[in-house]
Amino acid sequence: MDEIYEGGCFCGRIHYRMHGQPMFIHCCHCTDCQRQTGGAFAINALIEAERIEIIKDEPVAVTMPTDSGHPHDIYRCPQCQTALWSDYGRRGWMLFIRVSTLERRAEFFPDVRIFTRSKVPWVRLPEDAQIFDEYYSTKALCPLKALHGARQPG
Ligand SMILES: [Zn+2]
Ligand SMILES: [Zn+2]
């Protein structure tokens, strides 16, 4: 049985469950993530969409433009507007869960730090972190075969 992780938005209108562990976790320091979150970085857990079960209500998609031209849909609570996950490039089958919307958020650690070229200077990365100026080779790093050949998220 896969472990179940509870998640939701700030106001409680959206409640979801993540079934099992994510495939890979990004800590993204790109300027898009900084602007969109108002923070120094975003922590995104890559997981198959079928492993996310929406328990209560339905998030709404807000489309963001990207440099690559592929649409980036952010799914938000219609009431409090908390961002719950992203679908980069409208793949449909894979979501980027905002790790901090999980109740057990502290149990998840980033596998890679990406777009560190725009990292704010006061964030210090651990010595053993896998660090990438921009993106990384999914073929070399990502454990999931299905990700091979997937478009790079912006
Ligand atoms: Zn909400
Ligand atoms: Zn980013």
Number of domains: 1
Secondary-structure element string: EEEHEEEEEEEH
Our count of helices gives: 2
Residue-averaged pLDDT: 91
> Could you please say which CATH topology applies here?
glutathione-dependent formaldehyde- activating enzyme (gfa)
Number of DSSP strands? 10
Instruction: Classify the secondary structure makeup into a structural class.
Output: mainly beta
Helicity range of the residues? under 10%
- What global shape is seen? globular
Q: What would your notes on this structure say?
A:
The chain has a single domain, classed as glutathione-dependent formaldehyde- activating enzyme (gfa). Helices cover 7% and strands 33% of the residues. It is built from two helices and ten strands. The chain has helices at 31-37, 138-141, and strands at residues 4-8, 15-19, 24-28, 42-48, 52-56, 60-64, 72-76, 83-88, 94-98, 112-114. The chain has a seven-stranded mixed beta sheet with strand order 6-7-8-9-4-3-10. A three-stranded antiparallel beta sheet has the order 1-2-5, with no helix packed on it. It is globular. Bound molecules: zinc ion (2 copies). One zinc ion (ZN) is lined by residues 9-11, 13-14, 77, 79-80, 82.
Could you give a quick summary of the protein structure above?
With 154 residues, the protein is mostly beta strands. The chain has helices at 31-37, 138-141; strands spanning 4-8, 15-19, 24-28, 42-48, 52-56, 60-64, 72-76, 83-88, 94-98, 112-114. It is globular.
